[in-house]
Design goal:
Blueprint lengths: L11 E7 L11 H15 L4 E6 L2 H13 L7 E5 L7 H4 L2 E5 L2 E6 L12 H14 L3 E3 L1 E2 L2 E2 L8 E2 L4 E5 H4 L13 H12 L3 E5 L16 E5 L2 E6 L6 H14 L10 E6 L4 E3 L2 E3 L7 E2 L3 E6 L5 H11 L4 E6 L15 E4 L3
Parallel strand pairs: 1-2, 2-3, 5-6, 10-11, 13-14, 18-19
Antiparallel strand pairs: 1-20, 4-5, 7-8, 9-10, 12-13, 15-16, 17-18
């Protein structure tokens, strides 16, 4: 039986997070980020287990203090002492797949988004999780080399369709993941380790995206054949052209069974900047828990509209806005710092 990478809306056993510890990721806002994490953990823990990575026992005790102050019972959280460079577990953690009706982990490599040098500890995180949890696992290896892949670079419907961007995975000169890899190479990898039959390649990611084109800032699958996709109506914003081009590609795409997609348009917030750097603020960086949808908000006029769209789509889950105006200073949001572990059949 082929492996299968479940969709995010399928049942979770747990959500993994890494407690924030790199001060430079949130300049001037590091202390407030801990309270944002507490808010996220509170909502996730209402319907599934939270598995939280911290450096050591001393840091675990500090986390317990923050959780207590936030009226979260710290004893309902599982703590794992694993060294990491940064907190973006979406991109560094293992992928949890189903094969022969059993859960197993797939371990890819991580190279700091092809940009940063402080990634060696993050690259080791999947192996340490697998060791501590005693998971069955496979390494994504080609030509005796473990392949690089980040969770934020792909999105799946759990039925065989995967969406990604050419900018992120196929770049040959900027933030390269797997040198000399082409689309056919990736499609072979996706089929082998995730059971993917149908890959849709969009073009570029949004302006300000530090990852060079992650899909989870522009377009997300929300059912087998439904996609929520960002749009920008300001023609002077570079995202207008980028998102319109991606919309045209997706409009002509099919699901794995040949069906058309229903595309739901999602607004973009007004551009946010820090020190002349554009930040990748997007409502598409939401996270689906067993009982809720955690949506980043930005004190923006479009917050209310975006939340309304999510409530129409996810009528069976509570839609919760999480103020992410500080969080986005780290160049990532809620989806980037969470990683679902599928329930074991």
């Amino acid at each position: 039986m082929s492996p299968r990478l479940p969709a995010e809306w399928e049942r979770h056993e747990a959500t993994w997070l890494v407690w924030p510890h790199k001060l430079d990721d949130w300049p001037g806002k590091f202390n407030t980020i801990k309270w944002v994490y507490c808010e996220i953990i509170k909502h996730i823990s209402r319907s599934e287990l939270v598995r939280l990575i911290v450096d050591n026992e001393k840091d675990e005790n500090k986390v317990r203090y923050y959780l207590n102050k936030s009226h979260i019972n710290p004893d309902i959280i599982e703590y794992y002492h694993i060294k990491s460079d940064r907190s973006w577990i979406r991109d560094t953690g293992p992928f949890y797949c189903i094969k022969d009706n059993k859960l197993h982990a797939v371990r890819f490599s991580f190279n700091g988004w092809g940009k940063y040098r402080d990634f060696k500890q993050d690259d080791a995180v999947p192996g340490k999780i697998i060791e501590k949890m005693n998971y069955k696992f496979v390494d994504a290896v080609e030509d005796n080399k473990r392949m690089v892949l980040e969770g934020g670079s792909i999105d799946v419907n759990g039925k065989g369709t995967l969406i990604s961007t050419e900018q992120c995975l196929l770049s040959s000169d900027k933030q390269v993941r797997n040198k000399n890899f082409n689309s056919a190479d990736y499609e072979r990898i996706f089929s082998k380790y995730f059971g993917i039959k149908n890959v849709i390649w969009l073009k570029d990611g949004i302006s300000g995206d530090d990852t060079n084109g992650h899909i989870d800032d522009i377009c997300r699958l929300v059912s087998n054949n439904t996609v929520i996709m960002c749009e920008e109506n300001n023609i002077n914003d570079p995202n207008c052209k980028i998102l319109n081009e991606n919309f045209e590609i997706l409009s002509g795409a099919k699901t794995e069974d040949g069906s058309n997609f229903e595309i739901i348009r999602l607004p973009m917030p007004e551009p946010l900047y820090y020190d002349n750097q554009r930040l990748p603020a997007s409502y598409a960086n939401f996270y689906i828990t067993n009982s809720s949808i955690l949506v980043p908000t930005y004190n923006d006029a479009n917050d209310y509209k975006a939340l309304g769209i999510f409530r129409e789509i996810f009528s069976n889950r509570q839609v919760i806005g999480i103020n992410s105006t500080d969080l986005i200073l780290g160049l990532g949001s809620i989806h980037c710092l969470t990683k679902e572990q599928a329930a074991n059949p």
